[in-house]
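Proteins fold reproducibly. Look at a sample protein:
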Amino acid sequence: MITIKSPREIDLMREAGRIVAQAHRAVSDIIRPGVSTAAIDRSVEASIRASGASPSFKGYNGFPASACVSINEEVVHGIPSDSILLKSGDIVKVDIGARYKGYHGDSAWTYAVGKISPEAQRLLDVTERALLEGLAHARAGARLSDISHAVQKTAEAEGMHVVRDFVGHGIGRELHEAPQILNYGPAGKGPVLKAGMTLAVEPMVNLGTHEVKMRDNHWTAVTKDGSLSAHFEHTILITQDACELLTARPKEV
């Protein structure tokens, strides 16, 4: 069942989302060549805890860190390490969740490290646009798959492919709630969206095949062909006419 959040719950989720956005601001300040993925993780955890929240991911199903930090062909669930250093030309995905007074916010962003290739920049631009095109269909009265179809159409129009093994999700008191939100499929299918629903929409787009495989750590997914992958995600609130970005970064407010 897709839950409708009360005004009190929505206020708590707004604060959880603000805390996640604040952690992303802290991350954007330190991303540069030579920084370790563990340093990114420490920055995320410090920012979240300073706001009176706790990291949603740390210990979730055994995940060992506060942020998922995934580089280049890594699609999602990269495990931070002091031995993994960012290099100029990398793209790094940072997925952050925060739990505030029992409610979660969740957002991922892909960052350029130093000067990246035009191909990598195009991937970032297309994936962010796919997210925003999907969110343009996230409003009361629309069908859930209207979001999915817009994401897929945007990515594939540029010759890129959406990952199918990982999906978006409902969010609230639990980090993962109903429904699952595919990043592909026909429009006009699935539940009707209603005001008060809260969702985490998160396209992952690959330059090559949509297929992924798992690393030996049983957490990190990588593109099957070694191509670059990007990931953008917002937690949103469905309203009557549009959606509200609960994890909006400063330029999006």
Notes: The mean pLDDT is 97. The longest strand covers residues 91-100. The chain has one domain: 7-247.
